[in-house]
Design a protein that fits this description.
Length: 640
């Protein structure tokens, strides 16, 4: 792939563009089609009878059957009926704010075909979708509803009770559309609260009986308000226009990143996240098929084996688990099997250096691994957080498929830069896509630059957040990402960490904790880890949630409760961390010299994780403040 060109040299940074965009940033996929609505309707015309959305059939006893599919034409019809039903039942009350009028409809659920139908239907009446993560806590839900003053929310059976229970704190809500048929008791409870609770099928039937003409959006209308996951506080509503999402897709397509009508995708990453949303529309516009997982993340691999996807979008957390799982199985195998696998891996990695992803070794050395995702995956992507290049290259060798690593934010529609050519990972996130330009601004004291971007993919602004807008968007249109990066020798961009995540030790050196956590998560004995430090101390410390199954293999004689408090097990975990640190050439400052094994996992429920499973660092430092203080009161751990 061509490296980006430095178009302008400025006193406060360099501006980078992809060579394709030298004469102007790319904004459209096709001249004359400027909205997601128009492109969806085009797909219906081209691929009407092709399978589009699939869900597994729910069987008795909590079991799940085969995938059942709806075609593009069937989804088109249902989305029309849903939109007509919502309008006919007068479910939407406009909000007049900041000199504009907004019509919102909320969707609060796991990924499923009804979500997609409701969202596509919303476009037909120019409604703005407000996507809520299914795992959001009460405070975040309350904030989002009250900011938008939405009157209608689509839910599933797990999330509708949360909305009903918040009625007193969210008085604007008057309608709940439950994807499943609601129980009579739930309908009555909602009625007592002043909410009309309908089943999704009821709204569809109302629309079928009272079909309305579409009221399609323009390119400058808002398609969605996507609320950030809130690593430092209350989520912010990113205002996304149709033209912005289309510019994002156009930039990727110009690089050859697209799918075909033969492709099949497994949708399991949160549908409220712009990363999964981007994948959904890229697939839709190319006539691909999208199958939804059945709602249990830990059983997602079973869905993959049944669906047999050809396209797989993942995140580092998942890919690291696959990596760990494969090595656990290999290391427990016989000497001969271990030797054959390692030799095959060495040969495969050697081939990857010449961009050879398929070899005769695949049918016996890696077949079982490939079959774990159905055996047909030919394209993979990763994003949302950094991932080690060793993990990427290992997985590309095992799955015989390129993994395209990208970088972006909700504010950039998902992707700012990407490695779009099949090749070995080089430890960076590629180059600017042709619909954005990137600026690298110097930072005092820190070894790296502040990454900023502008272009048609950039969000308009945050909804009702004047102060955040002033801090994030400058007068020249640049969006300040808050990410520290370095420019590699081949022009690729390497993202180090969030600037706000860095902390300084007493030596005056900065530490990037997320980078370290991603390395230490490769340890077999670690399930979760939080690395932190104090400016008056000369080393870091860590809070570790251990992988009990790994520890019990080595400490079978110690009961579970004692494992967390045993100095022996703590020292074992620490030694594994130090070996991993040496393997990845971490400096002495990047090696925690004290740690605490925690019985309490980091979760959204205890306020330590965002819905996208990122650590809330201010909250974690406060939550573990006493533990951190105690760790620094102890002498540093030493190898014996």
């Amino acid at each position: 792939m061509s490296a980006p060109r430095v178009l302008i040299s400025e006193d406060n940074g360099k501006v980078l563009r992809h060579p394709i965009a030298e004469r102007g940033l790319i904004k459209q996929i096709q001249v004359g089609k400027t909205t997601l609505y128009e492109h969806f309707r085009k797909s219906v015309a081209l691929f009407g009878q092709k399978n589009y959305l699939g869900m597994r059939e729910s069987l008795s006893g909590g079991k799940w059957g085969d995938y059942k599919w709806k075609t593009y034409s069937e989804v088109d019809e249902l989305s029309h009926e849903f939109a007509s039903g919502v309008r006919h039942m007068q479910m939407i009350t406009p909000l007049k704010e900041e000199g504009a009028q907004y019509e919102f409809i909320g969707i609060f659920s796991k990924n499923r075909e009804e979500w997609a139908i409701a969202e596509l239907g919303a476009m037909r009446q120019n409604l703005i979708v407000v996507a809520l993560y299914e795992t959001l806590g009460e405070e975040a839900i309350q904030t989002i509803i009250n900011e938008t003053q939405m009157t209608t929310i689509c839910c599933n059976t797990e999330t509708s009770p949360k909305i009903l229970n918040l009625k007193e704190k969210t008085p604007s809500v008057r309608f709940v559309i439950q994807f499943e048929t609601p129980e009579a008791e739930s309908v009555q409870k909602a009625k007592d609260l002043g909410i009309s609770l309908f089943g999704f099928s009821e709204v569809i039937q109302k629309g079928k009986d009272n079909l309305l003409e579409d009221n399609p959006p323009t390119k400058e209308d808002y398609y969605m308000f996507s609320y950030t996951s809130g690593t430092t506080g209350v989520p912010k509503g990113v205002m996304i226009k149709h033209e912005s999402m289309l510019a994002e897709i156009a930039g990727l397509v110009s690089l050859g990143i697209c799918t075909t009508p033969k492709d099949v995708h497994l949708s399991f990453l949160p549908f409220a996240h712009v990363y999964e949303k981007l994948a959904f529309y890229l697939l839709t516009f190319n006539g691909s098929s999208i199958g939804f997982y059945h709602g249990v993340t830990t059983e997602m691999m079973e869905d993959a084996k049944l669906l047999k996807p050809t396209v797989f979008t993942g995140v580092p957390r998942l890919f690291n688990r696959i990596y760990d799982g494969v090595w656990k199985k290999v290391n427990s195998a016989s000497f001969l099997k271990r030797a054959v696998f390692k030799l095959s891996l060495w040969l495969k990695l050697k081939g990857l250096k010449n961009n050879k992803f398929v070899s005769i070794l695949d049918s016996f050395a890696f077949k079982e691994i490939k079959n774990g995702l159905g055996g047909r995956v030919k394209k993979m992507t990763t994003g949302s957080a950094p991932i080690d290049k060793e993990v990427l290259n290992f997985l590309m060798a095992c799955f015989s498929a390129p993994i395209l690593e990208g970088y972006g934010q909700t504010e950039s529609m998902g992707v700012c830069s990407i490695v779009n050519k099949p090749r070995m990972a080089k430890g960076h996130v590629g180059y600017p896509i042709p619909s954005v330009e990137i600026k690298l601004q110097e930072l005092e004291e820190m070894e790296g630059k502040h990454l900023m971007y502008r272009g048609p993919i950039r969000m308009t602004k945050y909804f009702k957040r004047d102060q955040d807008n002033e801090e994030t968007l400058d007068s020249e249109g640049w969006l300040k990402t808050g990410d520290l990066c370095v420019l590699c020798s081949d022009g690729g961009i390497k993202v180090v960490d969030r600037i706000k995540n860095f902390f300084k030790l007493s030596q005056g050196e900065y530490v990037a904790p997320e980078k370290l956590e991603n390395v230490y998560l490769l340890c077999e004995s670690i399930q979760q880890i939080f690395v932190t430090g104090h400016s008056n101390q000369n080393y870091t410390v860590a809070i570790v949630v251990p992988e009990l199954s790994a520890l019990k293999k080595h400490f079978a004689n110690i009961d579970t409760e004692a494992l967390y408090n045993s100095e022996e097990t703590k020292k074992y975990v620490w030694k594994e961390m130090m070996a991993t640190a040496d393997h990845y050439k971490l400096s002495s400052l990047e090696k925690p010299l004290q740690l605490q094994l925690s019985q309490e996992p980091f979760s959204e429920e205890n306020g330590l994780l965002t819905p996208t499973q990122k650590i809330k660092r201010p909250q974690a430092n406060k939550h573990f403040s006493q533990v951190i203080q105690e760790l620094y009161s102890k002498p540093p751990l030493k190898s014996s």
